[in-house]
Amino acid sequence: MPELRSLAAxxxxxxxxxxxxxxxxxxxxxSAAALREAIEESLSYGAMGLDYFGPAWGARAAFARLLRVxxxxxxxxxxxxxxxxxxxxxxxxxAEVLVPEGDFSSLVNPFAVRPGIKLRTAPLAELAEAVRxxxxxxxxxxxxALDGRVADLEAIRxxxxxxxxxxxxxxxxxxxxxxxxxxxxxxLVCAAFKWLLCPRGTTFLAFGEEVGAGWSDHDEGASAGGxxxxxxxxxxxxxxxxxxxxxxxxFAPGARRxxxxxxxxxxxxxxxxxxxxxxxxxxAIHAHDLALADRYRAGLAELxxxxxxxxxxxxxxxxxxxxxxxxxxxxGVRISIRSGLLRAAFHFHNSAADVDxxxxxxxxxx
Length: 366
Prior knowledge:
seven-stranded mixed sheet; Aspartate Aminotransferase, domain 1; 11 helices
């Protein structure tokens, strides 16, 4: 993959062996340059710059292309938790929400604290079978943050449709390396500061084809064809410049009515980062990342270690290696310890040499 390698070399030169994308992605050089320019601009034009909406809307369009959905179906925001709270707020009283055991708290907790919601859990591998009549929503991560297990997206989707349940997918640990089609699910949320390499504070919420089916360029109502925009502020108006005072009377068409006032600098960087992911291509990144993860799994096996089974994942989590963290840190290897697991995450800026360096620093089972 010569293009992938050349783009990675041009954009990344970390002073560490960085294997921690599951915690936070590296910022590409093009994004860092854009942020420096924006900060300089702010010295004369304020923290919203000369163009507050342009970069954010450009990032929205890029995310939509990567996730194979129209930009009119993507809202921009700041966190997964806020998006989850929005979805939780639209559910009727006594609604049952099904989630995997141990999924990420930003996805799960807004449903847990919403009065009246019946939160039910099931093992990830059994999630599709656990959907039942009366389940209103199945909320789950496409890839588990803790150990990299990949959900059976199609099986869960089919089970939800069979029982009349909505689907809400957290793609935070998937978008950027795992090919996804957001339109196949009712809601898809993604914090883009990990595998999409954006600054923290960049989050997208995509709406599927059946949610907001009545949206048009002439929608004015607060809930025309979709959930009520419970956190709508001035940016949710059809003309944000005319929506500063009092209730918003004319909402933006499509998903833009769910926009939050965004962090300007984060979205300046996001527009550039997403352009890089588009240039490389998710399919190429997917193949590269999985090849590195498989190389690492093979090396672990030679050392006598058994990672958590997570076939087809760019995340590899292994028990029994937490004592290696200090040695790895001293050697400049950036990696995570999560719940007794050594978690390595391989992305397109990584190489086989990174994998081999990590393996050289790990102890063999005696």
